[in-house]
Design a protein that fits this description.
The chain is built from seven helices and ten strands. The chain has about 250 residues and is α+β, with helices and mostly antiparallel strands. The mean pLDDT is about 95.
């Protein structure tokens, strides 16, 4: 199994693809990965389908040869669960020479939406990139500095976990997260946007939080830690002003 952790530091969103079909073996590997994703919440029904460019209206975006169409049962935490799941695919694509990009604007056609009995959530484009696949330096990331997203003392392994979260992708690079805690627990919070930003970002904030939580978990396990992502009463009680509690990462 390929270690996905290094991809955190070099993945980037790819928006320009070669449109020819991928080899059957490559698509089979993608499907196997889809079938082995680790959910954040295993009691939420999800459905991921590989669809072609003919199944998607790209609107203002360039076409990709393939998309993952993601559907979910509408239950508490479902958007965070989708972010956690699909970021595994984002890093998987990066590790296997394929480009990918979260797609907020394109929409699947009616036949795709009607092919599932649960709610359509989001698309992820993927295929062979026409541009350079990977970043060559962390300086290429346009991200907030750590003190802007956390008040946890940045030292030792906890700094590595926060850095992994800092580099996570988010809708319009909004980085809606803030982290509190210590060396044993990281409490994750999402900001409450103003009315204007809420119109644009409300759909994606909890998805973004799932992405960041997956990066923290992946980094912790890479460093030999065992983690559990749970609801924590203390974390909930410590919610900062204008933020919403999402979950806590317990670290052993």
């Amino acid at each position: 199994m390929v270690d996905l952790y290094p991809q955190i530091f070099k993945r980037k969103s790819i928006r320009d693809y070669h449109l020819e079909p991928l080899e059957e073996g490559v698509l089979q590997n993608v499907l196997e990965q889809v079938n082995n994703l680790e959910p954040l919440y295993d009691d939420i029904k999800v459905d991921l389908k590989i669809v072609s460019s003919d199944d998607v209206n790209p609107r203002m975006m360039k076409k990709a040869p393939y998309y993952l169409a993601v559907f979910s049962e509408n239950k508490e935490g479902y958007k965070t669960n989708i972010g956690f799941l699909l970021q595994q695919m984002d890093l998987f694509f990066s590790a296997h020479g394929l480009g990918s990009c979260w797609q907020g604007i394109p929409q699947p056609k009616k036949r795709v939406v009607e092919s599932s009995d649960i709610k359509f959530i989001i698309l992820m484009a993927f295929g062979k990139p026409k541009v350079q696949l990977h970043r060559t330096s962390n300086l290429e990331f346009n991200r907030k500095p750590l003190p802007k997203i956390s008040d946890i003392k940045n030292e030792g392994y906890i700094g590595a976990l926060l850095e992994a979260a800092r580099l996570a992708p988010s809708a319009t690079n909004s980085q809606p997260w803030f982290f509190k805690g210590n060396n044993h627990v990281i409490h994750a919070y999402s900001f409450k946007p103003n009315i204007l930003r809420a119109i644009m970002l409300k759909k994606y904030i909890k998805i973004d939080m799932g992405i960041a939580l997956y990066h923290i978990k992946l980094a912790a396990e890479h460093l030999g830690k065992t983690v559990r992502i749970v609801f924590d009463d203390v974390g909930h009680e410590k919610t900062p002003n204008r933020y919403e509690y999402v979950a806590s990462v317990k670290i052993n």
